[in-house]
Amino acid sequence: MDFEIVGEIREIETFAIGRSIRALKRLRKMYGGSRWRKRKGVALVRLENGDVHRAELHWYEAHGVGRREMRIKRKLDE
Q1: Cβ(57)–Cβ(43) under 8 Å?
Q2: H/E element holding 74?
Q3: Fewer CB within 10 Å, N or C, the chain?
Q4: Is 9 within 8 Å of 57 (Cβ atoms)?
């Protein structure tokens, strides 16, 4: 990750579960797990250059595996 989450992730939503996730085969091959979810939420993030922004984050999550491949979808304060 090229950012650090400052505080907690809020407004968490699940918008894809199981077979509706395009990368499901790759996720199972790389990390294992069976019940994958694609989720999104809003948090404060500190970028590598030190700037702090409010951003929408997307990630994959599975029970027993945890959060994987977290990324910033967009900055909300610009």
Answers
A1: yes
A2: strand 66-75
A3: C
A4: yes
